[in-house]
Amino acid sequence: MTVWGVLAGGRGRRYGEPKASARFGNQTFLQHSLDVVRRSKMVDDVIAVSVARHQTLTLPDDCVAIIDSDIDPGPAHSIGRLAGYANSCERDLVVVAVDMLNLTPTTLSRMRDRLRDQRLTGEFRVSVASSGTRDHWVFVGIPHALTQTVADNAGSVSAIQVLLQLCPIERFPVSAEELLDVNTPDLLPPDRN
Questions:
Q1: CA count, 13 A, side-chain hemisphere, 94
Q2: How is residue 157 annotated by DSSP?
Q3: Residue 140 pairs with which residues in a beta bridge?
Q4: What structural domains and CATH numbers belong to the chain?
Q5: What average pLDDT does the structure give for the chain?
Q6: Coil, helix or strand for 17?
Q7: Half-sphere exposure of residue 120: CA atoms within 13 angstroms, side-chain side
Protein backbone atom coordinates (compact mmCIF):
# COMPACT_ATOMS: atom_id res chain seq x y z
CA MET A 1 0.00 0.00 0.00
CA THR A 2 1.09 3.52 -0.77
CA VAL A 3 0.77 7.06 0.55
CA TRP A 4 0.70 9.47 -2.40
CA GLY A 5 2.27 12.68 -1.09
CA VAL A 6 1.51 15.85 -3.02
CA LEU A 7 3.78 18.80 -2.20
CA ALA A 8 1.39 21.75 -2.36
CA GLY A 9 2.85 24.26 0.10
CA GLY A 10 4.90 26.40 -2.31
CA ARG A 11 4.17 30.10 -2.42
CA GLY A 12 4.75 30.33 -6.17
CA ARG A 13 6.74 33.57 -5.92
CA ARG A 14 8.01 33.18 -9.48
CA TYR A 15 4.53 33.64 -10.93
CA GLY A 16 2.62 35.51 -8.26
CA GLU A 17 0.31 33.03 -6.51
CA PRO A 18 0.51 29.87 -4.39
CA LYS A 19 1.32 26.79 -6.45
CA ALA A 20 -1.70 24.83 -5.23
CA SER A 21 -4.18 27.47 -6.46
CA ALA A 22 -2.39 28.50 -9.67
CA ARG A 23 -4.34 27.61 -12.81
CA PHE A 24 -3.52 24.95 -15.39
CA GLY A 25 -6.17 25.10 -18.09
CA ASN A 26 -9.55 24.97 -16.33
CA GLN A 27 -8.15 23.42 -13.11
CA THR A 28 -5.82 24.43 -10.33
CA PHE A 29 -2.42 22.75 -10.13
CA LEU A 30 -3.70 20.85 -7.09
CA GLN A 31 -6.86 19.60 -8.83
CA HIS A 32 -4.79 18.48 -11.81
CA SER A 33 -2.26 16.65 -9.61
CA LEU A 34 -4.98 14.94 -7.59
CA ASP A 35 -6.70 13.76 -10.78
CA VAL A 36 -3.47 12.17 -12.01
CA VAL A 37 -2.81 10.52 -8.63
CA ARG A 38 -6.37 9.18 -8.41
CA ARG A 39 -5.91 7.44 -11.76
CA SER A 40 -2.75 5.75 -10.39
CA LYS A 41 -3.71 4.77 -6.88
CA MET A 42 -5.09 1.50 -5.61
CA VAL A 43 -8.30 1.37 -3.54
CA ASP A 44 -6.52 1.20 -0.16
CA ASP A 45 -3.93 3.88 -0.96
CA VAL A 46 -4.02 7.27 0.79
CA ILE A 47 -3.51 10.73 -0.71
CA ALA A 48 -1.70 13.12 1.66
CA VAL A 49 -1.34 16.77 0.67
CA SER A 50 1.51 18.71 2.27
CA VAL A 51 0.23 22.19 3.06
CA ALA A 52 2.12 25.15 4.52
CA ARG A 53 0.85 26.43 7.85
CA HIS A 54 -0.32 29.75 6.36
CA GLN A 55 -2.45 28.12 3.63
CA THR A 56 -6.18 27.65 3.74
CA LEU A 57 -6.96 24.92 1.24
CA THR A 58 -10.19 23.03 1.06
CA LEU A 59 -9.22 19.46 0.29
CA PRO A 60 -11.49 16.77 -1.09
CA ASP A 61 -12.72 14.11 1.36
CA ASP A 62 -10.32 11.50 -0.04
CA CYS A 63 -7.26 13.57 0.97
CA VAL A 64 -5.44 13.97 4.28
CA ALA A 65 -3.82 17.34 5.02
CA ILE A 66 -0.27 17.20 6.39
CA ILE A 67 0.29 20.66 7.83
CA ASP A 68 3.90 21.81 7.87
CA SER A 69 4.89 23.49 11.11
CA ASP A 70 7.28 25.90 9.37
CA ILE A 71 5.77 29.10 7.98
CA ASP A 72 7.66 28.66 4.71
CA PRO A 73 8.65 24.98 4.48
CA GLY A 74 11.11 23.77 1.91
CA PRO A 75 10.77 20.49 0.06
CA ALA A 76 13.03 18.65 2.52
CA HIS A 77 10.85 19.57 5.48
CA SER A 78 7.65 18.69 3.63
CA ILE A 79 9.05 15.38 2.39
CA GLY A 80 10.10 14.61 5.97
CA ARG A 81 6.56 15.27 7.27
CA LEU A 82 5.06 13.11 4.53
CA ALA A 83 7.59 10.35 5.26
CA GLY A 84 6.66 10.47 8.94
CA TYR A 85 2.99 10.11 8.04
CA ALA A 86 3.71 7.20 5.64
CA ASN A 87 5.80 5.53 8.36
CA SER A 88 2.94 5.84 10.88
CA CYS A 89 0.65 4.12 8.34
CA GLU A 90 3.34 1.50 7.56
CA ARG A 91 3.18 2.32 3.85
CA ASP A 92 5.50 3.25 1.03
CA LEU A 93 5.56 6.90 -0.03
CA VAL A 94 5.52 8.42 -3.50
CA VAL A 95 6.12 12.20 -3.44
CA VAL A 96 5.05 14.41 -6.34
CA ALA A 97 5.32 18.19 -6.54
CA VAL A 98 2.06 19.92 -7.41
CA ASP A 99 3.73 21.81 -10.27
CA MET A 100 4.87 18.72 -12.19
CA LEU A 101 2.02 19.03 -14.66
CA ASN A 102 3.16 16.53 -17.29
CA LEU A 103 3.41 13.41 -15.10
CA THR A 104 1.18 10.59 -16.27
CA PRO A 105 -0.75 7.99 -14.30
CA THR A 106 1.32 5.33 -16.05
CA THR A 107 4.56 6.76 -14.68
CA LEU A 108 3.12 7.05 -11.17
CA SER A 109 1.89 3.45 -11.36
CA ARG A 110 5.38 2.35 -12.44
CA MET A 111 6.84 4.06 -9.37
CA ARG A 112 4.29 2.35 -7.10
CA ASP A 113 5.11 -1.01 -8.70
CA ARG A 114 8.84 -0.37 -8.24
CA LEU A 115 8.30 0.07 -4.50
CA ARG A 116 6.24 -3.14 -4.39
CA ASP A 117 9.10 -4.98 -6.12
CA GLN A 118 11.51 -3.70 -3.47
CA ARG A 119 9.31 -5.17 -0.73
CA LEU A 120 9.40 -8.52 -2.52
CA THR A 121 13.18 -8.55 -2.95
CA GLY A 122 14.10 -6.86 0.34
CA GLU A 123 16.49 -4.50 -1.52
CA PHE A 124 15.31 -1.04 -0.45
CA ARG A 125 16.31 2.11 -2.32
CA VAL A 126 14.89 5.59 -2.69
CA SER A 127 13.82 5.95 -6.31
CA VAL A 128 14.57 9.39 -7.74
CA ALA A 129 12.99 10.36 -11.06
CA SER A 130 15.61 10.87 -13.74
CA SER A 131 15.41 11.74 -17.42
CA GLY A 132 19.05 10.80 -17.92
CA THR A 133 20.14 14.44 -18.06
CA ARG A 134 18.14 15.71 -15.09
CA ASP A 135 17.14 14.25 -11.73
CA HIS A 136 13.98 15.59 -10.13
CA TRP A 137 14.20 15.33 -6.34
CA VAL A 138 10.54 16.16 -5.72
CA PHE A 139 9.33 13.07 -7.55
CA VAL A 140 10.65 10.26 -5.40
CA GLY A 141 9.55 6.85 -4.19
CA ILE A 142 10.49 5.95 -0.63
CA PRO A 143 9.90 2.38 0.58
CA HIS A 144 8.38 2.00 4.03
CA ALA A 145 11.67 0.51 5.26
CA LEU A 146 13.31 3.94 4.74
CA THR A 147 10.48 6.37 5.61
CA GLN A 148 11.51 6.75 9.26
CA THR A 149 15.11 7.52 8.30
CA VAL A 150 13.96 10.24 5.90
CA ALA A 151 11.44 11.60 8.43
CA ASP A 152 14.02 11.80 11.21
CA ASN A 153 16.53 13.76 9.16
CA ALA A 154 14.69 15.76 6.49
CA GLY A 155 14.31 18.90 8.60
CA SER A 156 18.02 19.31 9.25
CA VAL A 157 19.50 19.48 5.74
CA SER A 158 18.29 19.56 2.17
CA ALA A 159 16.26 16.64 0.83
CA ILE A 160 19.06 15.70 -1.53
CA GLN A 161 21.63 15.54 1.27
CA VAL A 162 19.33 13.43 3.44
CA LEU A 163 18.73 10.93 0.68
CA LEU A 164 22.34 10.78 -0.48
CA GLN A 165 23.76 10.41 3.02
CA LEU A 166 21.25 8.05 4.58
CA CYS A 167 19.62 5.93 1.91
CA PRO A 168 20.65 3.89 -1.10
CA ILE A 169 19.55 5.76 -4.24
CA GLU A 170 18.42 4.48 -7.63
CA ARG A 171 17.50 6.52 -10.65
CA PHE A 172 13.98 5.85 -11.91
CA PRO A 173 13.71 6.51 -15.66
CA VAL A 174 11.13 9.12 -16.67
CA SER A 175 10.80 11.09 -19.89
CA ALA A 176 12.31 14.58 -19.84
CA GLU A 177 8.91 16.05 -20.71
CA GLU A 178 7.31 14.56 -17.61
CA LEU A 179 9.95 16.12 -15.37
CA LEU A 180 9.19 19.67 -16.51
CA ASP A 181 7.69 21.92 -13.88
CA VAL A 182 6.54 25.51 -13.73
CA ASN A 183 9.94 26.50 -12.34
CA THR A 184 11.36 25.87 -15.81
CA PRO A 185 10.01 29.10 -17.40
CA ASP A 186 11.12 28.42 -20.97
CA LEU A 187 9.52 24.97 -20.85
CA LEU A 188 6.06 25.73 -19.46
CA PRO A 189 3.21 23.52 -20.65
CA PRO A 190 1.50 25.14 -23.68
CA ASP A 191 -1.94 25.51 -22.06
CA ARG A 192 -0.67 27.20 -18.87
CA ASN A 193 -2.84 30.31 -18.34
A1: 29
A2: S
A3: 95, 128
A4: 2-184 (3.90.550.10)
A5: 82
A6: coil
A7: 6
